[in-house]
Amino acid sequence: MPKTITWTRRHILSLVDFMPDEYNTILQTAASFREVLSRRTKKVPALQGQVVANLFFEPSTRTRSSFELAAKRLSADILNFAPGTSSLTKGETILDTAKTYLAMGADILVVRHQAAGVPLAIAQEMDRLQSGTSILNAGDGQHEHPSQALLDLFTLCSLLNPNNPTLEQLKGKKIAIVGDILHSRVARSNIWSLTAAGAQVHLAAPPTLLPKLFLDTLPDAPNGKLFIHWNLATALEGADFVMTLRLQKERMAQNLLPSLREYHQQYGITRDRLKPCQPDVKILHPGPANRGVEISSDLMDDPNLSLISQQVTNGVAVRMALLYLLGYSKANEYN
Amino acid sequence: MPKTITWTRRHILSLVDFMPDEYNTILQTAASFREVLSRRTKKVPALQGQVVANLFFEPSTRTRSSFELAAKRLSADILNFAPGTSSLTKGETILDTAKTYLAMGADILVVRHQAAGVPLAIAQEMDRLQSGTSILNAGDGQHEHPSQALLDLFTLCSLLNPNNPTLEQLKGKKIAIVGDILHSRVARSNIWSLTAAGAQVHLAAPPTLLPKLFLDTLPDAPNGKLFIHWNLATALEGADFVMTLRLQKERMAQNLLPSLREYHQQYGITRDRLKPCQPDVKILHPGPANRGVEISSDLMDDPNLSLISQQVTNGVAVRMALLYLLGYSKANEYN
Amino acid sequence: MPKTITWTRRHILSLVDFMPDEYNTILQTAASFREVLSRRTKKVPALQGQVVANLFFEPSTRTRSSFELAAKRLSADILNFAPGTSSLTKGETILDTAKTYLAMGADILVVRHQAAGVPLAIAQEMDRLQSGTSILNAGDGQHEHPSQALLDLFTLCSLLNPNNPTLEQLKGKKIAIVGDILHSRVARSNIWSLTAAGAQVHLAAPPTLLPKLFLDTLPDAPNGKLFIHWNLATALEGADFVMTLRLQKERMAQNLLPSLREYHQQYGITRDRLKPCQPDVKILHPGPANRGVEISSDLMDDPNLSLISQQVTNGVAVRMALLYLLGYSKANEYN
Q: Cross-referenced InterPro entries, in alphabetical order (chains A, B, C) (predicted)?
């Protein structure tokens, strides 16, 4: 652990107003947990006796497992809320469900929901009740997915400086985000963290998935460092990093795309397409990937190019850091 | 923990034959666990190495999570039986499923089933096999839900005497239970515990959900202290506590109710309706609630009136007490 | 634990090439864990901090619970992969799913899949990546179910010699396997372990479920000790042990069987049918059983004849042994 940690935020809902110090605290805390994970015994007693409840109203294996493992490695107790077998079908409101877990003694609620704003609404209710419970947004609709963007950030910064990852490392770097920007909570969260780091963020997608007015949909969009491309080649030119996004197949049913094949031909990332990038360019993908659609299969499997498996590994360390910092701020309240 | 505990019951299936001493032992054990739960580290090693299997043939989030957390805080290992992915669809009998968990080494089986009597049948089979395994009924059909009634009892008694909750506190209190009495296992279990405490229990519901002959359906009904009302006002007059029950929406399809709206108008608990009650009346609800049907939304959220969130909190403490006492009786057998 | 253990196999995928020393190491390790399970505190810290991921693409309660409990009793952390709520529905490949768990830090993947060969394919990918992760086949299509055959083996050997179970005990014993041999991964795995022990294995089933050419479907079938019967009586004559297999009801829809009733009349195991067996014959069944189809109800419940509940109990001990040995080989790599 960093010797002195300053952390005051009770909920992690969005990165839109994150301060550089907060990013750096997370990066450094994650770096120390990353080191714990390389030991044979990968557990620390930091959250012993605390309860983390996973409220995944939208199903997920990857993110839920990652949070679950992070919580277990901090020695917390975990409650998994299974929407299928839940009281929701019995007409209970989401806030009442959350309050039930609060009343059971949950210290941190990790919330995923298909509708934007649900984690915020729960957090406001928790604060109104002066409960001290923390809410961690694990993805809400097309709004934000902060822990994904933070693990992406950690993956990039710790690649560039393994011993001391900080926001500084990304200053002036060119990062292309390619894919269904319009519907992507991953892209939204990454826009805040990457521009906060001083990176140049280049968004690339077909016009239906990246309308001219996209920037206007962002609150206080940092226009200066954000660029929009409908042509993949210009977005990739000189890029240090390329983030591909998962293409939801339902976009075609919505007439936003002609076909997966055409999408791949124009916006799929392939070895050939990467030629105008920096020679040491690296690829990220939040997973799960459609091989041969948004990214070619051989790229995914090339350890010299793909950071995908590091993203997953770092995901556990970053989520340990987030749970730890939220628990830490709570511990201070106890003392 | 109380210094000396006497507990001999191996299974908790029904409250019909519970003795005052048993109620008081549970209340006092729960009180000490309630204190544990207010600490930062909410765990005790009481059931370390023992296995609690949650056999929930009927889906449930709330009760299952409560038992799961209670077991975790006693340091037990938990097995969750998921009916959807189970051997039941392969034609295995319920008793064979239970015996599989017995053979795996389960010490306590927490059983919920949509049919009345299943926990009893499993308990009888466990005893026939001289297994020493305990069965805890977590709700069986329209029969009983003992742990819910015990947490209700604990909530009432510890409100009246936080340091030393006993049955005594409820002597002569007037408690109204309002709603779908006929189909409610919660009501049935509460009838036994509350009348055992010497409370006056007033049941209120439309005639279709509380037939004249209801008392005859109870084994050895304690008629003296049980009253039936088809008119809410008389049931609430002078009441110290009001328990509302969840209204299953399928009752309308069964032609037992005209509409949710009419039900609310006649039997829904609202601030206005509470006027004839005692000035410090409190409301309970087993959850999940239909806001605006059996209870108005503002009442649910009023911390001066609603005990709902305390019920959930106490649920964990009471279930810890039940698991502890069953495990305790087992420990004595080991010695 | 045996004082010195030699174990070098990284994956347990099939028993076809298992060596006698490997069987004996498992039997002896399981025997020592069986002893642990009879204590009040049934936990050892052997796999503390290691992660066991249950990847059950095919649903299962019994085998998954058994592995989960085994892992918990070794103090490992467990991740359960739930196929219903998984990324698979999002088009992710099985190998990508497995690699996600690898990247999260899983040390052992327990894999069940409806298609034969999936655990092998994952193991090959893990080795290609030099990950050191172990794969344990928990049942793949109609191919193999090694942990089931090993618990059957342990049940037989430890019945004959509780203190020192070894392959030796089964030399020359006659073991009948009765039922749907053709489609049974349990039968296939048992064929390898039992013939390796020098037992005489007699397979009995209707011709549709045990075609003449069945032996040709086995790789290097040990013909010398394997016998095929279409008549149950000759298979049972003088048998020391009878293994019944679960009859999948879908076999009738496939026109492989006339009716369950006729199947029971000709191949169902009943007390009467056992008369030509050895006087101390014992029955095994991998569960879940169809009472009254492949086995009569009274036989299942007769503790003098049925080893079924011992199989379940031993299943936990044997799976602890398998996870321990795989973790053990890994620990050596760390040192």
A: Asp/Orn_carbamoyltranf_P-bd, Asp/Orn_carbamoylTrfase, Asp/Orn_carbamoylTrfase_sf, Asp_carbamoyltransf, Asp_carbamoyltransf_Asp/Orn-bd
